[in-house]
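A.,

Following up on our hallway conversation. Structure tokens first:
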């Protein structure tokens, strides 16, 4: 494969941004299958090993330590590598890229209560068989702080649209969320 055209780069940037959005959605809903599918098939997850099962095990443990986690994705910069193929890839037409993504997280930390974080992800991406995947995500914390409301997750239900203030129904009624917690 030769160098990408401007249109191909624009489409690829959109597809990579969708990858980051899907990651945030999967974290929020605890969709372990979706999380695993976002990584290249041989991605490494430290002591958990490599591949989809390792991804599921890694995320099951990590997400089992927190409650709700809503990640708002912003400032996603993507740079394509100069070479058109990825060394060591099964796909001779693999295209690689790197990027940084800023995230504002709202996280129910079991030890700290509701916290907010500003997180920077340093990412590596690869396109395999026409689909962009993460090769690696490096999570860097810039800042974390407790939410100003002492116990916002202990509020009475809002029963929206009847009331604007109170606890809502998401993610508590999402099928992946329910399945995740039923297996813990």
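Then the amino acids I'd put at each of the 184 positions:
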């Amino acid at each position: 494969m030769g160098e990408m055209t401007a249109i191909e780069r624009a489409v690829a940037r959109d597809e990579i941004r969708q990858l980051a959005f899907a990651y945030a959605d999967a974290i929020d809903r605890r969709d372990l299958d979706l999380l695993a599918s976002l990584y290249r098939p041989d991605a490494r997850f430290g002591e958990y090993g490599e591949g989809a099962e390792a991804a599921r095990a890694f995320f099951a443990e990590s997400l089992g330590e927190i409650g709700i986690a809503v990640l708002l994705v912003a400032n996603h910069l993507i740079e394509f590598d100069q070479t058109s193929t990825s060394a060591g890839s099964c796909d001779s037409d693999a295209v690689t890229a790197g990027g940084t993504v800023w995230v504002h997280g709202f996280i129910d930390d079991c030890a700290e209560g509701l916290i907010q974080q500003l997180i920077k992800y340093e990412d590596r991406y690869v396109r395999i068989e026409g689909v962009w995947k993460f090769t690696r995500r490096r999570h860097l914390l810039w800042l974390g702080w407790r939410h100003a409301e002492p116990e916002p997750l202990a509020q009475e239900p809002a029963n929206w649209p009847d009331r604007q203030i109170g606890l809502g129904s998401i993610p508590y009624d999402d099928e992946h969320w329910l399945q995740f917690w039923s297996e813990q």
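The radius of gyration is 18 Å. Curious whether your intuition agrees with the design.

B.
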